[in-house]
Amino acid sequence: MSAHTEYPEALNLLARAFTRLPGIGERTAERLVFSLLDWTEEDLRQFGEHLSELKKNVHICENCGNWADSRQCAICRDSARDCKVICVVETAAQIMVIERSRCFHGHYHVLGGRVSPLDGVGPEDLNIEGLRQRLKENQVEELILATGADVEGEATAACLKDTLRNDGLRMTRIAFGVPVGGDISYADAATVAMAINSRHSAD
Ligand SMILES: [Zn+2]
Questions:
Q1: How far is the CA of 29 from the centre of ligand 1 (A)?
Q2: For the purposes of burial, counting CB atoms within 10 Å of the CB of 99, is it exposed (0-12), middle (13-18) or buried (19 or more)?
């Protein structure tokens, strides 16, 4: 018998929804719901509104794949940023991690995943074509490959190296220190800055 049987169904439903979030187990989910029950009706209504309008209000930048308020993200719209350098990441969340380190002032490109044959993800499932287009249209001088240091991340970087290689383009790989095999999503700002500042030629 579930430990939840004595709770009202509405409480169970919400708790179950919370357990879909990363790092939230059943106990934590329950605590979150109990806490929400102490909120005012108005605060709950606003919270619900933020949730229900999240997808409508967060757009995907048509240029780089980052999250955006409008058709283009704040980074692509910022003319002070160096458009000659593009840092290639797997997810939009990784852009936020690098931005927090304040060590990079170029542009980004979100692949939307990584090459992973076991999960049935091939290069054709990633936004490589969009990147190729950007390289063609802009005078990009350096491509920083910031995909993960694990097998899939390395395979993705190798694939980019092979398919995007051209004479005028320098491709570099970020330097992973500790933790080996990690990806930048979990690194602190100082580690991210180190990884980008000590990048080396990808060849
Ligand atoms: Zn953008």
A1: 34
A2: middle
Range of the domain at 23: 9-56
Exposure string of 132-147, with b = 16+ CB inside 10 Å and e = fewer, is: eebbeeeebeebbbbb
For residue 172, give every residue at least 6 positions away whose Cβ sits within 8 Å of its Cβ, in sequence order, or none: 142, 143, 144, 145, 199, 200, 201, 202
43 plus 89 within the same structural domain: no
Predicted confidence (pLDDT) per residue in 131-140, tens digit: 999 999 988 9
Cα 183 to ligand 1 centre (Å): 21
- Ligand 1 centroid to Cα of residue 63, in Å, is 5
Q: How far is the CA of 76 from the centre of ligand 1 (A)?
A: 4
Domain total of the chain: 2
65, part of any domain: no
Would the pTM count as exceeding 0.85? no
CB 60 within 8 A of CB 109: no
